[in-house]
Description:
The chain is an alpha/beta fold. The protein is 47% helix and 13% strand.
Amino acid sequence: MALHRFVPLAAICALALSASLASPAQAHQQRAAEPYCVTHKCIALTFDDGPAEYTNDLLKVLKKYKAKATFFLIGNRVKKHPKLTKNIATGGHELGNHTWDHKYLTDLEYKAIYDEVKKTQDIIKKTTGKTPVLFRAPGGLTNEGVRTITAKFKLLQIPGTVSTQDYIKDYRDVEFLTGRALDIADQDEVMLMHETVKQTVESLPAVLEDLTSQGYSFVTVSKLLEGQELIPGEIYPEQLPLSGD
């Protein structure tokens, strides 16, 4: 005859209580392991063509609103303005490659494209100690040669998903650019702007104030893409390239 082991009721209750207490902790660990933008309303602000005369003003606005951004820098301007470049990096922002002198790469031969990318990688690394992992082609113009070269440098192509179109002179009005930015803002968008446009920098306080009230977190592009399987040379977020200047 088999003997049955009986567990006291008090012990069963203690085990059940222990399991129920562990569940929230396990759930918290699972949430902590998820990419930030899975559980937060994220948007990535990006600024092209710097560093430039309005860079420090832009950095002050971003700091006030605890916003992180991605700056796609032009190599010859990094060389000319090393202190501004360092200010961007020490502010906790992300540095991207926007070629050496903003030539449209689809007009260039392979060697010239390579030089545009490499020289910019080198000067940003020399100036800040950071090697860019993101690339934005001038005008959003890219081709197979650009894909091959950016892949060699382990760069992701980031044309952006929406733009304020501040590169159009007729749009350079603070009120217009404020409204435009708020109209195109949405979760997981990569917004393209230019730090060289004074009206863009002046519009940002109102833009960030409004978006903050809507619950947005302002993150770098790499933070936005966190958790995805990313292939160097390819375009992210996955979509048709956005045309920009």
